Amino acid sequence: MSRRMVGLTLLNLAGTLVIVGALYDLLVPAVPQNHLAYLGAADTQLDPRFAALDLAMLRSIGGCLLAIGAATLVLTNGPVRRGETWARLTVAFLVGVSEGNNSYRMFEFDSPWYGPLGFVGLALAGAMLAGRPGQVQKLPEKAL
Question: Which CA distances in Å does 82 have to 8, 67, 122, 133?
Fold first, then answer.
């Protein structure tokens, strides 16, 4: 497998994992236990308004991350595959900023922050490896 194909695979993997994480945020049925522990509240002690606020915030970031993951896949399989540098930089920026901030914010709440940080690593490595497609080499005329 070429360096470029490894890069494209990493970018596709990063985009897919961002979407999977976003779906968790969008579909989580109740306030996560680590959030309750941070607040010092058991399930029954948390005011329903605070629970609704927490879930609304999770679902908000989930929607944003879903869009980032989808954009990553579209850019990877379109302009990045064609070798457009701006698209590689855009994917690295989108995933880097969104999941980097997500990871930073999750750390304080004892959430699995290393997941989103890993997505950033995959996107950055993929963007570096998925350079322009190689030039098509012409056969010397004597070989024809």
Answer: 11, 22, 20, 7
